[in-house]
Amino acid sequence: MTRWTGKKLGLALGGGGVRGFCHIGVLKVLEQEEITIDLIVGTSAGALIGGAYAAGASPREIHRRVDAYIRSPQFQSSTLREIGLTMSPAERTFWEKTRNSVRQQYFMLSAFFKPAIFALEDFEALIDYFIPDIDIRETKIPFCAVATDLITGKQIAISEGSLRKAVLASCAVPGAVDPVHLGDWLLADGGITSLVPVLAAREAGADAVIAVVVDREKQVAGEFETAQEVFNRAGDITSDKLVELELLQADVVIHPRIGDLHWSDFSHAKGLIQEGETAARLALGEIQEAIPVYNKLLHIIRKFTLGEP
Q1: Whole-angstrom distance between the N-terminal and C-terminal Cα of the chain?
Q2: I need a labelling partner for 104 at 20 to 30 A (CA). Which of 137, 237, 245, 246 fits?
């Protein structure tokens, strides 16, 4: 396939754990509308879905892998599933609520005695279900994964080396997954420095950027009964303001309606994909306006002279 030599359309896929399954729906709509993406930059869940797509998996195939992973023995016996069940907002009996409360306390206490709650094997199994064992430079669409170096505090956009390791580093949620050693870096979740990597997409060469936000919707604050609640709220406010500033650099922002879904709650996977489709369709007018005009002309020329779709 001949790459366009004109201006580039980039896709910045944000982090948000399981909420990142919305990205599958967005990609599905972009394909159906024949909107060609020239490069993809992903943070955390955005790196997972974006990396799989950049490597050649179709949205339908990624959806199939989601279903396969959720049914797999690795997931069914994983701590990731246990935490997701604990955090799910589903209606529960008194005893289920009591059990979940005990589980939450156990997970919180375990964080004081080891660097991560999840076994690294759980996350590696997740990565392997979606990502092929290739070098990033072998992807069909140029791709990079955004992570954060805990030593220097700098944002790191990984564009070479193992695709699996890059995605694992980008997904390494602090306190949940062990940081990943890569050269002189000690890498953790890209969302620490860039929850939606719009600027990284610009730096990678995108002239126009479609940003997809899958962060949970913040509730209007009420009473704060503990110091932990105050601390968490302050962190949320800081994060929100940083995201807002970066999104100002995007040409189009797609924000699926996710609600307050916890990042580890896999019980809503199918609904999230549909929410991604709905949000992308609502943004189609803005996307068409954002696509560089020169690229549109090249697409028409390529379609009729080279016989490409």
Answers
A1: 10
A2: 237
What sign does the dihedral 22-28-31-35 (CA atoms) show?
negative
The three state secondary structure string of 65-99 is HHHHHHHCHHHHCCHHHHHHHHHCCCCCCHHHHHH
CA distance 15 to 248: 17
Q: Cα dihedral angle (51, 56, 62, 64), rounded to 10 degrees?
A: -150
Helix H or strand E encompassing 115: none
- Residue 295 tokens read as 């690229």
| Residue 242: Cβ-neighbour burial (10 angstroms; 0-12, 13-18, 19+) | middle
Look up residue 252 and give its two tokens.
């189009």
- Strand-pair partners of 269: none
User: Is the pLDDT score of 85 beyond 60?
Assistant: no
Could you give the 3-state DSSP secondary structure of residue 145?
A: strand
The pLDDT assigned to 112 comes to: 46
What amino acid is encoded at 128 in this protein? D
Mean pLDDT of 34-63: 96
Q: Which residues contact 235 (CB under 8 A, 6 or more apart)?
A: none
Structure tokens given for 42: 């992903």
- The amino acid occupying position 122 is D
